[in-house]
Amino acid sequence: MSITNILLQEQEIYSQKTQYYIDLESKYGANNYHPLDVVIAKGKGVWVWDIEGDQYLDFLSAYSALNQGHCHPKILQAMVEQASKVTLTSRAFRNDQLGAFYQKLAQISGLPKVLPMNSGAEAVETALKAVRKWAYQIKGIPENQAEIIVCDNNFAGRTIGIVSFSTEAQYKEGFGPFTPGFKVIPFGDVEALVKAITPHTAAFLVEPIQGEGGIIVPPAGFLKAAEQICRDNQVLLILDEIQTGLGRTGKMFAHQYEDVKPDGITVGKALSGGFYPISAFISTQEVMEIFNPGDHGSTFGGNPLAAAIGNAALDVIVEENLSERAAIIGEYFQKKLRSLNSPYIKQVRGKGLLIGVELHPEAGGARRFCKALAKEGLLAKETRDNVIRFAPPLVISTEEIDWAMERISKILTA
């Protein structure tokens, strides 16, 4: 048999192997995701390899959970070392990792109290509960009448409580009845915020940049104005930094661009560097004091394995200056994207390495471009119908950006 025939035979076997994994997942899994058909088997830094051995540059970072890159050795070492000691105690007992994790998060965020959970949605649900109880116990809003203001086009997860204030029809269809107590205003609209506030308003919950909504950046000064409006009306300002936080936008937190001091922050995703589900609600002494033992909790929230991983993940962000890298390389990348002479591109927007390329509606949707990029060795994903999200790990180099731009230019100018 010739070398050519052998190679073709191997290629067919690999292809069958890929299809096997796709078919297996489709047969036994719920149809609640629409992934690109790349079966990833290995990752390191900014690169991943599929089951066939093909190499790709990861430009999604698991929706910003991999700011530190795939399988960062320092975080991996912390995970392995802690896993060999003790992984779970429940919060019925104390563990020797949690206090240091709290301290580190408090120092990085500028807020004194931490309540650990697992997923980002759990962190947001924790914030909602804290805000409501604060409203009744501290502000004096009549029981069960607290209102929380949110913005249209928001995304904070998919629990019943969270989808209750979503404005995306698909997230709500078939899942009612919904939780009351939310008001929706246009994102970035200061006047609408003022008008929405009543004596029953407990909080304003907002993303500094809307990630799932299409990488929407609000007008300059919006967050700072919102902070002052909230202060003037005894309304809590709660910022959802689950996607935008921990270096992604070029600052440790996106709200730091406007020197905003929120009453609470939700964090997750990159809090573990992609090794483990870890999230937290971080807030003021006054807000956190409303919780009593038994009011809220999680068996896995704050477990020693999570705390050890979280400590290492935060250390990597600080020690490797990932926020600064995101600012510098993000500016470099966005400048190159804006220089593309593409008939498809309507707008390039974002901060740091959270970037959205919005396409004209007549371009035929962002997904077909993501499929074409995958064939060129670059993995990105559409958000909404017409936006390609580019969010590589923050450890990426300018040389790797140049490599990516060759492929992006090829696809977006063809």
TrEMBL record:
Its cofactor is pyridoxal 5'-phosphate. Its EC number is 2.6.1.13. Pathway: Amino-acid biosynthesis; L-proline biosynthesis; L-glutamate 5-semialdehyde from L-ornithine: step 1/1. The lineage of its organism: Bacteria, Bacillati, Cyanobacteriota, Cyanophyceae, Pleurocapsales. CDD domains: OAT_like. Belongs to the class-III pyridoxal-phosphate-dependent aminotransferase family. This is ornithine aminotransferase. The keyword Transmembrane does not apply. It holds the Pfam family Aminotran_3. Keywords: Amino-acid biosynthesis, Aminotransferase, Proline biosynthesis, Pyridoxal phosphate, Transferase. GO terms for biological process: L-proline biosynthetic process. One of its GO terms (molecular function) is ornithine aminotransferase activity.
